[in-house]
């Protein structure tokens, strides 16, 4: 990330569009593992009842905080002494500092426990075994080692290709649609937002257009708070109704407010953007905040469920989510301007809203049959994945 970001902002005369594209490709390769690993770390560090707010906070950091970037870039790009290149340079500088912090203060969180202690992995009760001695605490220098041994007995090739057949697993397919699609809507909004504010009738400057992303960031913070409160309250209520027993499917209940805010945000944004001279920029900002609230909630619901329901393959499931999300977002961003010109804002976002309603409704069978899916997955070792030893 440090090298590719510096490459992307290079002022050399030989820099051209192709060079910038390849710099962005290497940025994507460098950053993609972070998106899957940071979610899995939440599962490594916290018990099930502690993950709700922390998972919501993680998704705000991953996706919501990204909306604060255009605000900063607007100021950078409009400054004659800096220019857009410094958006890459600053990224390289911060990633360099982040690397030092990561190296010194983030130890390995994965730990290979005995089978009977894997409480997240078990569908049924596991017989008790004799206690295993607690290993000695590692020294600081030992924790700095970039490699501390394998954390699984699975073969390398199996781990390498495991994410691809997982797309056929119902829970993973649901998670990809739930998270990838709602994030895709925010991506296409980010692509066309400048088109709305820079053109007629508002004619905002680049700096002012950048400020309009503040509403999305505020929406992500509201989504964090609402998702954390809703998840904890509803999960506790469902546990009480279930005789004190927790089920991962309880996390899916967060889809209810996700559906509410996404419908309000997508439908409202399309209508307001198509008649901006009538509604003005403030109304658009409110609906944009609603879209990002639903994005945080939807991403949190899918991530929490997959982490709790399929803890042993959580890295692979998050890899599937990233692959789907990136491909879907790329398609949306690639055709965004063409769709706006052909269909207009209203028709396009009403269509998006209807698609989102359909995807959210898929949560009903996922909630009803999720436990059966988990039991079948573990008992029959579906597609030869994740055999428990």
Automatic annotation (TrEMBL):
UniProt main location, coarse: membrane
Compartment annotation: Membrane
Transmembrane segments annotated in the record for this chain: 56-76, 88-106, 171-200, 212-231, 252-273, 279-306, 318-337, 349-369
InterPro entries: MFS, MFS_trans_sf
Keywords in alphabetical order: Membrane, Transmembrane, Transmembrane helix
Membrane topology category: Multi-pass membrane protein
Top-level lineage group: Eukaryota
Protein name: MFS general substrate transporter
């Amino acid at each position: 990330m440090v090298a590719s970001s510096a490459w992307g902002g290079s002022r050399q005369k030989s820099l051209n569009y192709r060079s910038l594209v390849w710099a962005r490709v290497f940025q994507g390769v460098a950053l993609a593992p972070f998106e899957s690993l940071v979610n899995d770390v939440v599962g490594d560090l916290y018990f099930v009842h502690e993950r709700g707010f922390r998972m919501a906070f993680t998704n705000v950091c991953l996706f919501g905080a990204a909306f604060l970037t255009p605000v900063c870039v607007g100021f950078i790009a409009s400054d004659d002494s800096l220019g857009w290149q410094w958006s890459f340079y600053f990224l390289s500088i911060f990633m360099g500092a982040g690397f030092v912090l990561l190296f010194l203060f983030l130890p390995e969180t994965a730990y290979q426990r005995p089978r009977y202690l894997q409480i997240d992995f078990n569908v049924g009760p596991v017989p008790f075994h004799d206690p295993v001695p607690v290993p000695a605490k590692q020294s600081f220098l030992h924790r700095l080692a970039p490699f501390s041994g394998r954390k699984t007995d699975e073969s390398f090739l199996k781990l390498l290709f495991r994410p691809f057949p997982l797309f056929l697993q119902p829970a993973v397919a649901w998670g990809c649609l739930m998270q990838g699609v709602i994030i895709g809507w925010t991506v296409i909004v980010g692509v066309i937002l400048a088109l709305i504010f820079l053109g007629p009738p508002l004619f905002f400057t680049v700096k002012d257009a950048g400020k309009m992303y503040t509403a999305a960031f505020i929406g992500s913070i509201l989504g964090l708070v609402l998702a954390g409160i809703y998840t904890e309250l509803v999960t506790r209520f469902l546990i009480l109704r279930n005789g004190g027993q927790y089920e991962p499917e309880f996390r899916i209940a967060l889809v209810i407010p996700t559906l509410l805010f996404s419908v309000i945000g997508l439908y409202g944004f399309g209508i307001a953007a198509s008649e901006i001279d009538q509604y003005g920029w403030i109304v658009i900002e409110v609906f944009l905040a609603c879209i990002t609230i639903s994005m945080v909630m939807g991403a949190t619901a899918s991530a929490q469920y997959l982490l709790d329901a399929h803890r042993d393959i959580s890295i692979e499931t998050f890899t599937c989510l990233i692959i789907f999300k990136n491909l879907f977002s790329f398609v949306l961003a690639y055709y965004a301007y063409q769709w706006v010109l052909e269909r207009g804002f209203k028709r396009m976002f009403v269509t998006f809203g209807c698609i989102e309603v359909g995807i959210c409704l898929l949560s009903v069978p996922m909630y009803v049959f999720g436990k059966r899916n988990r039991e079948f997955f573990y008992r029959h070792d579906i597609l030869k994945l994740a055999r428990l030893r």
